[in-house]
Design goal:
- There is one protein chain.
- This protein is α+β, with helices and mostly antiparallel strands.
- Among the domains are: about 100 residues, PDZ domain (Pdz3 Domain, Roll); about 140 residues, no CATH class.
- It has 12 helices and 11 strands.
- Strands 2, 3, 4, 5, 6 and 7 form a 6-stranded antiparallel sheet that branches.
- A hairpin with a 2-residue loop joins strand 6 and strand 7.
- The chain is globular.
C-alpha cells in the first residue's frame, strides 16, 4: 500500500505540470446540456426513421422482384413498417414519444410505394389495433402478436386489420404480396457498410447517408442476392470444414510435440474456410443482384456507378482485392451483366440468371 500511495503522489505531481488551456471558459449549465442531449436524440430518431422509410420503399419492390429466386424464404408481406415507443430502450424512448409521436400502441411508421398496404389506403401514422379481429396487446408484445397474426392470415389470403386514424377506427382488408422474407434494417452505428446475415439485409446509417437512390438499389439487390443464394450458409459450412481439418491438425501436433496448441490450428483453418470463395460469392451476388433490379423493371444504366463512388471513399480498393473483388473489376462486371440482361430483354427471354450446379 505504501508503494502504491507513493506512486499516486508521483503521478499527481507529474500531471500537475501539464500544460493547461489559456482561454477563460464560461461555465456551462448542466440543465442546458441535458436539454441538448434530449434534442440530439430526437434529431437522431427523426433522421433514422426517415432513412428506414427510404430503405423500406426501395427494398420492398426488390424483395418482391426477387421472390422467384429466394426458394423457401418467401413470405406474405403488406409493405408496412410499425413499432412502439418502448422498443427504443430507456435512452431513446422519450425521444421516440416526443419526436416521432409514438406510444405503447402500435403505430405504422412506413408504407412502401406500390405495396398492398398503400393500395388499401393505409397511411403512416395510423395506429394498428387488431389483426383478424384479435386486439393487440400494447408495447413489444403487441409487435410480436401483430407480426405473427399478419403472417398466418397472409398465408391463406387477405389480412383484416383494425386501424385507428385521428381517433376513428376502420376495418381494412389487405391482400399481401409474396416477397423474399428478409427484413431491410437500418443500424444506427457503424461505418459505410451493408451486409446480409442470411435472415436480414442490414445497412448502416452512414451507408444510407452516403448512397443516392440509384446506388442504394444496386446495393440492396446485391445483399438480397447474398441471402437468396445462401452464401452465409455456404460460408458457415466452409468454416466448419476448415475447423474440422484444423482440429485434426491440433490433435496430431499435440500428440507429436506434447505441447498444447490451444486450438490455434482450428481457429486458423476455420477463418481460412470461411474466406474460401469469398470473392466469388461477391461476384455472384453482384450478378444475381442485377437480375433482381431488372426483374423490378429498374433502370440499370447507372447501377455500376456505385463502384466509382466506393472508389472515392476507399481508393485502395480501386485495384486491390481482398475478401471482395476490386472496385474496378466490379464496375466492369456490372456493365457486362447489363449487356447480358439487355440481350435477353430484346429476345423476350425471362430475366433469370444463368445457373450451374454448385459443387
Amino acid at each position: 500500500m505504501r508503494y502504491v500511495s507513493f506512486a499516486i503522489v508521483i503521478g499527481m505531481s507529474a500531471f500537475s505540470g501539464c500544460v493547461k488551456p489559456t482561454t477563460q471558459l464560461a461555465p456551462v449549465s448542466p440543465v442546458a446540456v441535458r436539454a441538448e442531449e434530449a434534442r440530439q436524440r430526437e434529431i437522431v430518431l427523426i433522421e433514422l426513421n426517415r432513412a428506414q422509410k427510404r430503405l423500406d420503399d426501395i427494398a420492398f419492390e426488390l424483395l418482391a422482384a426477387a421472390a422467384g429466386l429466394c426458394q423457401e424464404d418467401v413470405a406474405p408481406r403488406l409493405g408496412i413498417g410499425y413499432t412502439t415507443a418502448d422498443v427504443y430502450g430507456e435512452e431513446y424512448e422519450q425521444a421516440a414519444r416526443s419526436a416521432l409521436g409514438l406510444s405503447d400502441v402500435i403505430t405504422i411508421t412506413s408504407v412502401s410505394s406500390g405495396s398492398p398496404a398503400e393500395e388499401a389506403g393505409i397511411q403512416e401514422g395510423d395506429e394498428l389495433l387488431a389483426v383478424q379481429g384479435s386486439r393487440l396487446p400494447l408495447g413489444g408484445d403487441g409487435l410480436e402478436a401483430a407480426t405473427e397474426g399478419i403472417r398466418l392470415a397472409g398465408l391463406s389470403g387477405a389480412v383484416n386489420l383494425t386501424i385507428r386514424r385521428v381517433g376513428v377506427e376502420n376495418e381494412v382488408s389487405v391482400t399481401p404480396k409474396s416477397v423474399c422474407a428478409y427484413p431491410a434494417v437500418v443500424e444506427i452505428e457503424g461505418p459505410i457498410n451493408a451486409y446480409a446475415d442470411g435472415e436480414r439485409v442490414v445497412f448502416t446509417w452512414a451507408m444510407m447517408r452516403f448512397a443516392n437512390d440509384d446506388e442504394l438499389k444496386t446495393i440492396v439487390g446485391h445483399e438480397i442476392a447474398h441471402n437468396a443464394m445462401k452464401h452465409i450458409d455456404a460460408q458457415k459450412k466452409n468454416a466448419l470444414l476448415g475447423g474440422l481439418f484444423g482440429a485434426l491438425l491440433d490433435v496430431a501436433t499435440e500428440s507429436v510435440t506434447g505441447v498444447p496448441t490451444q486450438g490455434e490450428n482450428t481457429a486458423a483453418f476455420m477463418n481460412s474456410g470461411a474466406a474460401s470463395y469469398s470473392q466469388d460469392f461477391e461476384r455472384e451476388a453482384d450478378y444475381v443482384g442485377m437480375y433482381i433490379l431488372a426483374r423490378a423493371n429498374m433502370d440499370l444504366e447507372r447501377a455500376p456507378d456505385v463502384w466509382r463512388q466506393m472508389g472515392q471513399i476507399s481508393p485502395s480498393a480501386i485495384a486491390y482485392a481482398s475478401s471482395h473483388p476490386s472496385n474496378a473489376e466490379r464496375f466492369v462486371r456490372l456493365t457486362q451483366i447489363i449487356e447480358e440482361i439487355e440481350r435477353k430483354r430484346s429476345m423476350g427471354v425471362e430475366l433469370l440468371p444463368e445457373m450451374r450446379e454448385r459443387d
